[in-house]
Design goal:
Elements (H helix, E strand, L loop, with lengths): L6 E5 L4 H16 L3 E5 L21 H15 L44 H14 L4 H4 L12 H5 L5 H9 L6 H22 L21 H9 L5 H13 L4 H14 L4 H11 L5 H12 L14 H8 L4 H6 L37 H19 L1
Parallel strand pairs: 1-2
Helix pairs in contact: 2-7, 7-12, 9-10, 10-12, 11-12
């Protein structure tokens, strides 16, 4: 093959290890005199473009996104020139790895076909439908897991079947921009922020960004970790979220916070255990979002939720799933439990058909009040050690 007629093109993946690989492969191609071009990946801005006035990276979301959004808008919208395809096409598929050699032995992934139809056309159709029908109420409905209140576009983003710029442009086409529009655009901002963080602070991929948390007394409890994964903690809203994750490869964002908080604060199990499990199960897994999200909940990341903010799984359920619609879908053992007890079945004061606590559904593995107090006490001791 004539090297002068042969070029290689690829898009960036904004993870430190992939960007390092880009440098290595670029140097190799230069030495071989092979033409190549690297294009911007699936972000609005390059991961290293947004900095404070003093040229240091942001660690707080709001000023980051205010700067990043303006930076992107100032660049202006434009369509890049298309690369003309060559008449002669070379097929490499015959040399690729056979799918049966890399797919899991278990049939677990097959059920995802019931929840997802992966394609670029489906991604475009879904985002247009969401913007037309759901975006206006997104600010309120995004926290209610029992309804279609979010776009569920994240798996398509993760697999590159839609670009974040496409989502942005579809949103900009709205004439009357509601509160829901701003809330949704801010979610795109959090995605940008997470990618900025892991590239400026790659150490957070391996440990706490806030080093004072290196002294935190995490618990090692394989039994508690296992029942959390299986959705058998005895707290219905937590268990519903974990079961949705395993069944569909996706979990509602409100429940991602609730289940993560339960693991790191009620059970005091290291956030990396949860990050690893989500990494293995999430259909929309993204390294930046996953690590930054877990550290945000744990309190050891950038612009993190304060450690003393501990999600109460009972109140979270009562507030965002008051009728138990979401819980009953994923925890059918509670189908006959009255509404007032759906998020605290241990308080049942009467018999319920086909339900017996401890037999049909587990008792809580920890007491909420006691677990909360223990977490706060551990945090106070950690603070004293770091002083």
């Amino acid at each position: 093959m004539n090297k002068k007629n042969f070029s290689i093109y690829w898009n960036k993946i904004y993870e430190p290890k992939f960007l390092l690989f880009d440098k290595k492969i670029s140097n190799s191609l230069k030495l071989k005199n092979i033409n190549f071009k690297i294009f911007k990946g699936n972000l609005l801005n390059e991961a290293n473009e947004i900095k404070k006035n003093d040229n240091t990276p942001f660690k707080v979301f709001t000023p980051f996104w205010k700067t990043a959004e303006k930076f992107y808008l100032d660049k202006g919208f434009h369509k890049s020139e298309r690369i003309k395809s060559k008449d002669k096409k070379i097929k490499f598929l015959n040399q690729s790895i056979k799918l049966e050699t890399i797919l899991p032995k278990k049939k677990w992934p097959q059920k995802f076909e019931n929840s997802w139809l992966p394609s670029e056309d489906e991604a475009i159709k879904n985002i247009k439908k969401f913007i037309k029908n759901e975006l206006i109420d997104y600010g309120e409905n995004r926290d209610i897991p029992g309804i279609q209140g979010t776009s569920k576009i994240s798996p398509y983003l993760a697999f590159g079947q839609i670009h974040v710029e496409t989502i942005w442009e579809e949103c900009q086409a709205i004439k009357n921009k509601s509160k829901g529009y701003r809330k949704y655009i801010n979610e795109l901002g959090w995605r940008e922020f997470s990618h900025s963080l892991i590239n400026y602070f790659p150490e957070m991929l391996e440990g706490n960004l806030r080093k004072d948390f290196d002294n935190f007394p995490w618990q090692v409890n394989a039994k508690h970790l296992n029942v959390w994964k299986k959705g058998m903690t005895g707290y219905p809203i937590v268990d519903a979220g974990m079961r949705e994750l395993y069944e569909t490869g996706w979990m509602h964002n409100r429940l991602r916070m609730v289940t993560a908080s339960f693991l790191v604060k009620h059970l005091r199990i290291h956030w990396q255990e949860g990050e690893k499990y989500f990494r293995n199960c999430l259909f929309d897994f993204n390294e930046a979002n996953n690590v930054a999200g877990w550290q945000w909940v744990a309190g050891c990341g950038a612009d993190a939720a304060p450690y003393f903010r501990i999600f109460n799984p009972i109140l979270q359920g009562e507030k965002f799933d008051p009728d138990g619609r979401y819980v009953k879908k994923w925890v059918p053992e509670l189908l006959n439990v009255p509404r007032e007890f759906i998020h605290k079945p241990w308080e049942l004061d009467k018999d319920v058909k086909d339900f017996k606590l401890g037999k049909d559904y587990p008792k809580p593995i920890v007491n909420h009040v006691a677990a909360r107090n223990a977490a706060l006490d551990a945090f106070q001791k950690t603070k004293k050690k770091s002083i």
